[in-house]
Amino acid sequence: MKINSIALFCGSAEGFHPKYKELASTFGQWCAQHHITLYYGGAALGLMKAAANACLTHQGKVIGIAPSFFSNSTVIDTSLEKLILVDSMSERKQMMERSADAFVALPGSYGTMDEFFELLTDAQLGLHHKPVAILNAFNFYTPLLEQLEIFKNEGFLRDFHFNLLVVAETVTELFDKLERYENSNKSTWLEKIKK
Questions:
Q1: What is the value of pTM for the model shown?
Q2: What is the mean pLDDT of the segment spanning 60-83?
Q3: Rounded mean pLDDT of 161-177?
Q4: Are 38 and 61 in contact (CB under 8 A)?
Q5: 148: CB partners within 8 A, 6+ apart
């Protein structure tokens, strides 16, 4: 499928090793060079800012979506050409889900996982049919992926729902998989759970 826009979920911190910031910058640069609009949380710090800066530096398009309760002086990047302020984290996720063609998680923590799992659950429920991906660089998410295998092997996650998740170890592999994405959800399962 043709990817014209991506919603990025990642840390508002940079982590203890510069490799994480370099990864986010590489991701942002790739988006710019391939004319992919980058939606992100509108933060002026962490991996979020590194990805946005790299995209903008290479003449890419960046759209920030941030809850209005964050501080303008320390959190929100008010220098963005396009910044959308919303009332809540939930509204931000909903807007990103509507706006982007795909969703990608880079290293992060609670907030990243909240956004990632909500979008993945919505894919499971057939509320959207877009790819949800994890960039598992440096094996950052390997323990999480092992837990998902346990969900599947213990009968709590169907194979076709397990296969909804796109996993890649490099930025190049990620975008290649996004372009070739085919939704694995079963229409017969969706018909059973919906009116």
A1: 0.94
A2: 87
A3: 97
A4: yes
A5: 157, 162, 165
Please answer whether residues 120 and 161 qualify as being in contact, where contact means their C-beta atoms are separated by less than 8 angstroms. no
Across the beta sheet with 132-135, the strand order is: 83-86, 62-67, 37-40, 5-9, 102-105, 132-135, 165-168
Average pLDDT of the chain is: 94
What pLDDT, on a 0 to 100 scale, did the predictor assign at position 94?
Answer: 95
pLDDT of residue 69: 87
Contacts (Cβ under 8 Å, ≥6 apart) of 155: none
pLDDT confidence of 95, banded at 50, 70, 90? very high
Q: Is the pLDDT of residue 34 over 90?
A: yes
The pLDDT value recorded for residue 1 is 82
Question: Which residue, among 57, 71, 2, has the nearest Cα to 26 in the 3D structure?
Answer: 57
Structural domain that includes position 118: 5-193
| 116's tokens | 């990632």
Tally of domains within the chain: 1
Residues 6+ apart with CB under 8 A from 107: 10, 11, 15, 20, 23, 47, 137, 138, 140, 141
CATH code where residue 128 lies: 3.40.50.450
Q: 65-96 as b/e, with b when 16 or more CB fall inside 10 Å?
A: bbbeebeeeebbbeebeeebbbeebeebbebb
| Cα distance between residue 168 and residue 161, in whole Å | 17
